[in-house]
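Memo to structure team: turn this sequence into structure tokens by end of day. - J.P.
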Amino acid sequence: MARQVVITGIGVVAPGGVGAKAFWELLSDGRTATRTISTFDASPFRSRIAAEVDFDAELHGLTPQEVRRMDRAAQFAVVSTAEALTDSGLALPELDPYRVGVTVGSGVGATMALDREYRIVSDGGRLDLVDHRYAVPHLYDYFVPSSFASEVAWKVGAEGPAAVVSTGCTSGLDSVGYATELIREGSADVMFAGAAAAPISPITVACFDAIKATTPRNDDPEHASRPFDRTRNGFVLGEGAAMFVLEERERAERRGAYIYAEIAGFATRCNAFHMTGLRPDGLEMAEAIRLALDEARINPEQVDYINAHGSGTKQNDRHETAAFKHSLGEHAYRTPVSSIKSMVGHSLGAIGSLEIAASVLAIENDVVPPTANLHEPDPECDLDYVPLTAREQRTDTVLSVGSGFGGFQSAMVLRRAA
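Reply from structure team:
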């Protein structure tokens, strides 16, 4: 019998507040953390809004040297890992370091540090041949996203498997899914797993401007992210991180750990169709959902809540609505669905882990977070998207899904630990 994998610690850095408690309060209140970009002058761009994290690295325990060495995303990963470790009650000296591993999801790596350093070595873009003498000594670490996993591993003394998973916007789901498989197969007993992203920089904003994926609703940032709404016109960029302590269940029970949830099923597929486009039938996401449910050994009728990708683009919202109908049948119409991107934006590679955190906390609190800003439902999106206000209900099983550029489709089933 495969080893069961459970979540015993949660750490979050998110727009609207640092820490899992602040994150859940924002979601359950239905508040939004989207605003005009403050980290640089975004006035030349089509979309000038984002969901930013108010983050003081030193206040959250990082030394000045660590702040200098790490990209902002790596800082998020380390701070959320520290919270997850404390929350789990693990005693690091008692662990076999070779049985402890790390996986971190990243969609765009050290974007902010690379953007900053390019401006410096190119003298603001004026030099065709950059002057390397002005680069920081840590520039190489910014080029290799594996540094994120290294930083987390150093922080917790993990000497087992360590990796960065980079599958676009499903990275945060896939990182936790990969860590789960490592525990199941016996390669590790404890994994620190999750994802981090800090992509709010000119280059990222310009890239999404070019394909018109982000919303130009700059005059009303608070209400700009509108998944499943008839008036939606693109997503709002975000940033943040969520990290988890995953353990083999029997081990967690022996040490008396509090168990938030079991990771009961996970699957991922690729549509092999288009870099950014999606087929309207949603069949590849439906297949990932079916496989995840099969691995969890549950029927579609047992799903109590779906934490949707819900980016707020027309093609995505219709695509996953179709996928839910294909995979859950008539039960899709009876299942509450919501998108937290309406409140914390789309943090690319990190959002899947933030959505796992939201799903676990929904189980913990028996509350389904709402889809904010949903006032005019799209007739083609005709499921129960929990508009505006959180809903109290018994929530034992949550399906969390993600969709990423390149055709990646992932699904995870989280279940209350019996």
